[in-house]
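Practice problem: predict the structure.
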Amino acid sequence: MSALQPMRCLFAKAKPPSRLCPRRTFQSGTRLQARPSPKHKSIKASDLGLLKRNEDKRQLSGKDLRPYSEVEKAALAQRYSPEQLAAIEVGEAAVDPNDLAEQGAAREDPMKLNYLDDFSYIHPVVDKPIRAPEENYDPNMRYKTEDELAEDLTNWVKHDMPDDPERVDWMKFMDNTRLTVGKPEAELNPRSSLAPEIPKLDSLKRGTGNEEIDPSTRRLMRQTGFDFLEIRRFRVKNLVSHRVVNQTRLGKVQSQYYLTVAGNGRGLIGIGEGKSAEHEEARQQAKNAAIRNMQPIPMYEGRTIFGDVKGKVSGTEVKLMTRPPGFGVRCQSLIFEMCRCAGIQDLAARVPRSRNHMNTVKATLKALLSQRLPEEIARARGRKLVDLRRVYYGGNI
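Answer:
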């Protein structure tokens, strides 16, 4: 062994001990030794001048806010009383002009609002809801008894009921009859702490804007009283469509036939027929006739019909049966589309005999209009009808 070997061992650089197992890596890619430097340097908003006001525009100063002149005071005196003018002068003197010039200027920073709000205008819903006056509250208001409601019905039958009453007349009487005794304002416009609903704009009710309305739709609006937006919201469905031929001495004349159903989804439904040489014209005729022939149908709880009813047209017989909540509409496609247009949610139907499409639609409408209300049955039998759920359970079941 050489003598230089111990000296080499003493002065040699010590090596770190090797690991028995390699270090575990938690990523599949190569390890980054340091965060890479960005390609472009960071730029601050202050360097770009975004936080500074535009120097080109002339800023308002306290010298621009001069006091009222004699001419302006004379103009104010015609509108305000002397006490109000004294209060205005005290308020003007309490406000520092420099502070007003600084705080009253329009903001130009990045956090400014993108609109200018007129704080002199009170928004009826957001700022200060328009509520009914406190005088409308009636602490002695109560619901009418059955005898009082029967007396109102008797007076309507004797004096206001037309000679040939219809279902619409009965519905108008129910809508206009008061259910309480006391101030009329307490029922029609009661005092409430709840904020009113968001008002609807008249422009949306008219609904058209610059849209042009065809003459047939204008004639339909005059005949029915519906506006353009309501007509567009109606649910319309073409149920039957086929080609028809009329044999004349000049030959065969072909036409297109459509049977359409229309409804608003809240108890109005009607069917219409249209026939023309052009498909679009026949479809439009059927749609307008369906909307023109819409009639209200009774609905129990707004979801189903009152009891089981039947309708028969020629050899087609339709039987409609009421069902509990959540049952759905289980029937053939034609009756299903009519229930969708009328807003019926729970119903079962059977067509035991002929299943002609045209007769099925007409028989279904005939069955829906033939319902008998429980009030009518009780009145015919000389009985009083009491809703147990509303009287004893408050309508919770």
